[in-house]
Design brief:
- 23% of the residues lie in helices and 31% in strands.
- The chain has 261 residues and is of the alpha+beta class.
- A hairpin with a 4-residue loop joins strand 12 and strand 13 (156-161).
- It is built from two helices and 20 strands.
- The chain folds into two domains: 2-81 and 224-258, no CATH class; 86-220, no CATH class.
- The chain has a three-stranded antiparallel sheet, with no helix packed on it. It has a three-stranded antiparallel sheet with strand order 12-13-14, with no helix packed on it. Strands 1-4 form a two-stranded antiparallel ribbon.
- Helix 1 runs antiparallel to helix 2.
């Protein structure tokens, strides 16, 4: 009977983690470039009362065994990197990746991080940076007297001056891909950093070697589907409640056992 209490407790803990993941997805439904996560579970070790296929006689074996499970645990929380919807902003420094790839930015600690959020701004020195001041890599500086900015699908950044009809090239946007994007580590601020499971970052020109293309004046929104998350939330809530009922039922059965005379 004590096994049922522990087993149900592991189920409640697993569904609590599931609810935490769902809550984070819903909280970031309006976060640009956010990628939803999904909790994955696995069963725990089994108590083998009788091994399957054990001998039951001289010339016979048991077709089934007696194996009692001991619960569940969270095995992984995996990011889903499917493309989010497009939001048109018409801002000159807003860029979206159509396809695979991440923008590399330099953090304040000197470490390069990667993001799908292309809402870049022009800093006080003209260099493009994200909303937290992390500089886009390689650095691109927009002259103060530029009248307009054009960013092509291949990431070429050109500026237009009032006294010149021909645009001038001031930089090249580059994207980074990973063999296993799901292995990236989230560090907040819409940023990811590599891990041993993500693979080595591979940098290149947009539109080449499987990288996506660039679209100016629009952003990639969160790929969270509210309806799906609501369904997942209700399922997690019902599972949590059911496991709590198992705890209550097991406790009542123990009370009946203690009341025996």
């Amino acid at each position: 009977m004590f096994k049922a209490l522990n087993t149900a407790a592991t189920g409640m803990k697993a569904q609590q983690t599931n609810m935490d993941v769902i809550a984070n997805n819903l909280a970031n439904v309006s976060t640009m470039g956010f990628k939803k996560a999904r909790a994955e579970f696995e069963d725990l070790l089994y108590e083998n009362v009788k091994e399957p296929g054990s001998a039951t006689g001289a010339n016979s074996i048991s077709p089934t065994g007696v194996q009692v499970g001991l619960g569940a645990k969270t095995s992984a929380v995996e990011k889903d990197f499917t493309q989010g919807s497009t939001k048109v902003t018409n801002a000159p420094f807003d860029v979206e990746v159509n396809g695979s790839g991440f923008f590399p930015v330099m953090q304040q600690n000197g470490q390069v991080a990667y993001t799908r959020d292309g809402a870049f701004k022009k800093g006080p020195d003209g260099r493009l940076q994200d909303k937290n001041g992390n500089l886009l890599q390689p650095e691109i500086t927009i002259p103060g007297n530029a009248q307009g900015v054009e960013i092509g699908q291949t990431g070429v950044v050109q500026v237009i001056f009032q006294d010149s009809m021909a645009p001038q090239n001031v930089g090249q946007l580059q994207l980074v891909s990973f063999v296993n994007p799901a292995g990236l580590k989230s560090v907040g601020g819409n940023l990811f950093v590599p891990s041993p499971s993500s693979g080595v970052p591979q940098q290149g020109i947009p539109g080449q070697n499987g990288l996506g293309t660039i679209s100016q004046g629009q952003l990639e929104t969160s790929n969270v589907n509210i309806v799906d998350e609501m369904v997942n939330m209700i399922t997690a809530q019902r599972s949590y409640e059911t496991n709590s009922k198992v705890v209550q039922a097991s406790d009542q059965m123990l009370q009946s056992t203690n009341n025996l005379r």
